[in-house]
Specification:
By secondary structure, this protein is mainly α. The chain contains 9 helices and 3 strands, in the order βββααααααααα. The relative contact order is 0.13.
């Protein structure tokens, strides 16, 4: 993944019509902007899995040494976490995201990336709780809102809750990549479940509770 990109990762088939998205914000340092235009990944050919980015073990060792020498260095911890995230090693990414968040507890991007890792590790409830933390920092954080819907739909089978937060995201950021993804998800979701068109209200089920 290019450092300036925000990757929309393909999570799986959604009612046979669209794909689901779990997105990481991937901010390795304070100089990078959370509003960098997203770059969507393309699905791998059928029957093939996209190869994860390999970890540069030499670079990782250097970063770990720097982290040990400087307990307050949040940048190296985020970079380490991102390296493991991109390599599809969420179990290795989690401790570094957690360590970074302890140093910078208001970093919404780190918090959301941590929640994505929890989801990849099979803990949808913990992911949603972490996304709640992100939304407490920044209530209209589009990437977090999109991820809440993904985890609700795929991890909790809470289609009404997923539809509700995607509706809310569309009201806030209709023209962003996240808003467009939410629109496609909603269109397919409501096509398969027409009853959701009338029952889902923005704000219902948007948190982890």
């Amino acid at each position: 993944m290019k450092p300036e990109s925000i990757v929309l990762a393909i999570a799986g088939t959604f009612f046979g019509l669209i794909v689901g998205w779990v997105i990481g914000t991937q901010q390795p340092g304070p100089a990078r902007s959370a509003t960098t235009p997203p770059a969507a990944t393309q699905p791998a050919p059928e029957g093939q899995a996209a190869a994860p980015a390999p970890v540069d073990e030499g670079r990782a060792a250097t970063l770990r040494a720097t982290a040990e020498q400087d307990p307050s260095n949040v940048v190296v911890r985020i970079e380490l976490a991102n390296m493991y995230f991109d390599a599809e090693r969420p179990a290795d990414a989690v401790p570094w995201y957690e360590a970074a968040l302890k140093i910078a507890p208001k970093n919404v991007n780190v918090s959301t990336d941590l929640g994505v890792c929890y989801y990849y590790l099979g803990d949808a409830d913990r992911a949603l709780k972490q996304f709640d933390y992100s939304l407490a920092i920044e209530p209209n954080h589009a990437k977090t809102m999109l991820n809440v819907g993904v985890v609700r739909a795929f991890g909790k089978q809470d289609l009404k809750g997923a539809a509700a937060i995607w509706e809310s995201l569309l009201k806030i950021s209709p023209d962003t990549a996240e808003g467009q993804a939410a629109r496609r998800a909603l269109d397919s979701l409501k096509s398969a479940h027409p009853e959701l068109g009338a029952s889902a209200q923005p704000g219902d089920g948007s948190g982890s509770r």
